[in-house]
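Re: export button greyed out
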Amino acid sequence: MEAIWYGLISLMLSLYVALDGYDLGAGALHLFVARDDGERRQVLGAIGPFWDGNEVWLVAAGGALVLAFPVAYAVGFSGFYLPLILVLWLMLLRGLSIEFRNHVDNPLWRSFWDVVFALGSSLLAVVLGAALGNVIRGVPIDATRTFSLPLFASALPGPGSGVLDAYTVLVGAFALVSLAAHGGSFLAWRAEGGPVRERSLRSARLLYLVEAALFPLVTWATLKVQPRLVEAALGRPLVWLTAAIAAGATALLVRAVVRAQAVVAFASSTALLLALLGSAAAASWPFLLRSTLNPRFDVTAHSAAAQGYALRVGLVWISIGLPLACAYLVHVARTFRAPPPHGPASET
Amino acid sequence: MTDPVLWHRLQFAFTITYHYLFPQLTMGLALLIMYFKWKALRSDEPSWDAAARFWVRIFGINFAVGVVTGIPMEFQFGTNWSRFSEYAGGVVGTTLALEGVFAFFLESTFLGVLLYGQSRVSRWTHFGSAVALFVGSWLSGYFITATNAFMQHPVGYAVGAGGRLELADFRAFVLNPWALWEYSHVMSAAVVTGSFAVAGVSAFWLLLGRHRDVAAHCLRTGVVAAAVATILQIFPTGDRNGKLVADHQPAALAAMEGLFNSGPYAKLAIIGQPDMVHRRLENPIEVPGMLSFLAYGSFGSTVVGLNDIADDNWPDNVPLVYYSYHVMVGLGTAFIALALFSLLQMWRGALLRSRWLLWSWMLAAPFPYIATTAGWTTAEMGRQPWIVHGLMRTSQGTSPQVGAGDTLFTLIGFCGLYLMVGILFLFMVGREVANGPPSFEGRVVPGRP
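Workaround output, generated via the alternate export path:
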């Protein structure tokens, strides 16, 4: 039962990254690929109907975490107190920038929110990556089953380092590049015709190259920082499967990017992100948070889980709710199948 | 002042109070927008469609702020109240998870269709999105109210290994009687806020002689909805909530009424100021026996006063509970008077001509926000000193390693950010109200794809 919930929450979080990832990535590229008001409305129109629903995957995953692993939620959220509150502030500003920008027809108002949108999106992508880095590296959970981390302490990853160290910043940078490339292929697909499409495609090409260059470095660093993870990963068929999917998706992606097939590029980019996160989750089982001090203090799916009845009841309801959520997603995707027009896109 | 519990509580109180200014309007407005869109479909008058379009814009701004200020609430259970989450997460996690899966997806998806899809979907589908949005937001209200109801009146749980709470009976937990009555009370309050906003803006337009068709429709709708909702607010929902408090939280009831001495024929205080040193009400105006009657149904019933409750089980701020309760009830009574009198004038055909009545509606628009805030303050401060009533004290629920310095920093940050958001919000809504509904001159039936 714990394994099912572990898988479910990993899936929800991966979907969050793949879905909110494209609108975060679009935000990171916003100022570069869209130069005038009409083009920027095109970018915002492309993500407008979707971004809020995408973000719900994170909130829903958070809710599922409280349900299934209340201890992990309590230890993790209180331990990452300051960085999480900073994330909240970023999400707040970024969300408002999307909704507020087109409400007032004034160039200064719009420029302000454009910059907030781009900065907020970029920083959030970095923070998401750094968060993943922290989970992989581990945190100093002690005998009281709590930890608290400074934002930054030493550059080298280890028991003495803070939220940001060389490793987590590297993963953060990798996340920014990956999501920006992902957002680029989304915009190349959704911004039909015109300069936004051209610039998005060009940015995506460049960013995928950088991503490919960073990938070996990240893999090597992970090997150094968390050898236990990689050891466990090698013996798991599921990890091999997801790695194979990732390899296949990469091949498709390269082909699509070279041939400028934006839909295929975006689809394979999505598959690649899901597969990468899936293999990370499969390799990490059953650890939710590793202690850098002593393996005895690790928070695992077994030690953190709610009792069986709550997990069973929750599973029944979630297996009704998630298909519904996917149905809404399909519905809204069909409604907005036609790309937003160039120029005034939003009706609000 | 160096006690971290104080700062944790202040931060949660501030962020939740601020957050709830927005959902109370959107939940109430969702109902009225549904009605406007229905009328737009069924009648040929373009002014109904203009009303729907205008209120969808206001809804969109409010919903955006509600979403971005709502996410911090779900995070703070973990960041600031980790011992509470660890202790009760096995139970309240259920409703938090269901809210995300069943309500938030529905809301966010169909808000997108409602805001961006007017030209892409048929009028019926667009109406359907308004219905879905209404269902989503009212479901969300239920799940979070059920979570709060567990903290007020825990049921359906067992104490498991390690002393943590476990879910024992899902039906009992979700259908907590406290949740049902609290939800009814909270939702009719949301309709009060929504209808007063709609009526208030219409009154403003009518007083200036602008947008007469749209304003007349909105004002009539607002007055009827307000009349129904304000009455539901007192009876049965307010009455039943009061009886639940009397049965399960005697200390909260005594604090709400400023009652120190136990006894039969307990008096209902209309006004007065609690004197905590001498343990009495100053300058009271009271109705003899009324409190006994309202709480237990007979004048001779004994109501327990604070003197017979151990001091460490008192709400830690009795005067605040007392005043917020009285502000809520006082405003609620005034709302009923305004709504019923306006309904009478409407029936006589004099509503739109009575300038002082229009002035009253315009000026009344902010007051439901105050009443709702006061109501929640009564409920949450009345629950103290418990975070889960009778089971866990609030001081035991905080995150142990998050100190006063950290929390003060984040509280100041929230204050600054929310102040900025509030100013921008008022500026944008003010502009919308000043611009008025979209013009429909020369348009027949708009909105067809």
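The two ends of chain A are 45 Å apart (CA to CA). The button fix ships in the next patch.
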